[in-house]
Design brief:
311 residues, alpha/beta, Rossmann fold, five-stranded parallel β-sheet, 11 helices, 43% helix
Length: 311
């Protein structure tokens, strides 16, 4: 499995070519995602929005978003808050969607940010991303499309149709599967007999790679390689982001009975935010004072965004 940072925040592979500012930027976007995620959960619990699907634990997808060019397109499902934030949508857009006002183009400029709104129908956006990438190549553009989905989507027919078309026509598509080990309440061993999800790409004639999905730098590196491969005309890549969601499937879900306390405890030790912060502290790029100031700034920004949206 591809890994750059181990759980203790130590380098175990070459760091991507990122300067200190970029390294800190990745961390601040991870932290922003976690804090917005927690605030949205609180709003739902207060009855101020109908439902929410948390992404805590899966924030390392921020690294994947930052490895793309600004003119590449991202097709999302519903647990990709970090991708929205990494794309620069800002706190107003990130919170506004879940508060029920996603159609205001001044808040969510799809064409400007090159990222789609939430797609709740499992897997149906995969063919869209593949078709978009095919069209871009047909027009002579060198942009890439990345489609993000969960492990449950690999059991849908749209997944296989999209993978097959992408493989045959060598479309510039990155398939990013966030494998958080369970599709709502269906564990991975009940979905597939494959040893990994990455190996499913073999049947369609293109590479699949497993990545430590709690490591934003590994996600950055793997996505950058997939992007460069697509731009060279070598076709798609399937990235299996091995991760874990720290919350139930959604706010409709109670305490999960399909995961053990031991599993929960283990994955907590792999927290992408703690791991990245520890690395930055070791490099002298982050300190407790910066952490406190950043948390205060983010908290105030979130509250301001919510107040504006609810006004």
């Amino acid at each position: 499995m591809r890994q750059v940072l181990d759980p203790s925040g130590q380098l175990v592979d070459a760091l991507p070519d990122l300067d200190d500012v970029a390294l800190v930027d990745i961390y601040t976007k991870l932290l922003s995602t976690r804090m917005v995620d927690e605030k949205l959960l609180n709003l739902q619990r207060q009855g101020r929005m109908p439902a929410y699907y948390q992404c805590s634990g899966q924030e390392a997808h921020v690294g994947a978003a930052l490895a793309l060019r600004d003119d590449d397109w991202i097709f999302t499902a519903y647990r990709e808050l970090g991708l929205w934030i990494a794309r620069g949508l800002g706190l107003t857009a990130a919170t506004g969607f879940w508060l029920g006002i996603p159609d205001d183009d001044e808040i969510w400029d799809v064409n400007g940010f090159k990222i789609t709104r939430l797609n709740a129908t499992i897997g149906t956006h995969l063919p869209h991303a593949v078709g978009f990438g095919y069209a871009e190549r047909f027009k002579g553009n060198d942009t890439v499309s990345m489609v993000v989905f969960g492990d449950g989507a690999t059991s849908e027919s749209d997944f296989h149709a999209a993978m097959n078309f992408a493989g045959v026509w060598r479309t510039p598509t990155i398939f990013l599967c966030q494998n958080n080990q369970v599709a709502q309440s269906t564990t991975l061993d009940k979905q597939t007999a494959s040893e990994t999800l990455a190996q499913k790409a073999d049947a369609y004639g293109f590479p699949g790679v497993r990545v430590d999905g709690m490591d934003p730098f590994a996600m950055y590196a793997a996505t950058l390689e997939a992007r460069e491969r697509a731009e060279r005309g070598e076709g798609p890549t399937l990235i299996e982001m091995v991760t874990w969601r720290y919350a139930p499937h959604s706010t409709y879900d109670g305490t999960p009975v399909y995961r053990t306390e031991e599993q929960e405890a283990h994955w907590r030790t792999l927290d992408p935010i703690v791991r990245t912060r520890t690395f930055l502290e070791h490099k002298g790029l982050w300190a407790a004072e910066q952490e406190e100031a950043m948390r205060i700034e983010l908290s105030e920004g979130i509250e301001t965004a919510i107040a504006e949206l609810e006004a």
